[in-house]
């Protein structure tokens, strides 16, 4: 299924526990990446980081108690790999949840800044990393960019924030695709 069709079908769904839709969240996250001067692949990863929430799930166990799809980060990354997107894009998406787990471990005050929904999903996502997990995560070649995507993800929840339209980011997706 093309990305445009996925957003047409589910983009107006609530972004679990937040005051924006799935599409608004994606557009805001991509806009934050652009404003930060991120490269095109990172902007696309920011735009598509939660696409796994919009993909069909096979059973009720695939949901986090009303807060989206369990393992959405891996589902989204694999979906994009299968469609010719770069490993960098896939890695940024696949590890944005690990970034939350890492930041909660490394900076306990980070947990206090999480939204209620993000705090609840942390439990489904494995909780804070262990010291060993954090040390391994820090070795990821895209570590810095993964943390950036996480930061934009946390901020991309503003009501009625003007952003470029979906066409802008869909065109960018096509340009970066292998």
UniProtKB/TrEMBL annotation:
InterPro entries: HD/PDEase_dom, HD_domain, HDIG_dom, OP_Dioxygenase, Phosphonate_degrad-assoc. Residues 22-143 form the HD domain. PROSITE patterns: HD (PS51831). Pfam families: HD. CDD domains: HDc. This is HD domain-containing protein.
């Amino acid at each position: 299924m093309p990305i445009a069709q996925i957003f047409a079908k589910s983009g107006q769904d609530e972004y679990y526990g937040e005051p924006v839709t799935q599409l608004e969240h994606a557009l805001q996250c991509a806009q934050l990446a652009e404003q930060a001067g991120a490269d095109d692949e990172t902007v696309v990863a920011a735009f598509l980081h939660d696409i796994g929430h919009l993909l069909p799930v096979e059973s009720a166990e695939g949901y986090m108690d009303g807060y989206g799809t369990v393992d959405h980060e891996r589902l989204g990354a694999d979906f994009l790999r299968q469609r010719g997107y770069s490993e960098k894009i896939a890695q940024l998406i696949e590890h944005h949840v690990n970034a939350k787990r890492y930041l909660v471990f490394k900076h306990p005050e980070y947990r206090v800044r999480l939204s209620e929904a993000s705090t609840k999903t942390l439990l489904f996502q494995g909780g804070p990393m262990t010291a060993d997990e954090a040390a391994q995560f820090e070795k990821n070649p895209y570590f810095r960019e993964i943390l950036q995507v996480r930061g934009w993800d946390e901020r991309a929840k503003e009501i009625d924030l003007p952003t470029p339209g979906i066409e802008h980011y869909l065109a960018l997706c096509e340009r970066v695709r292998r």
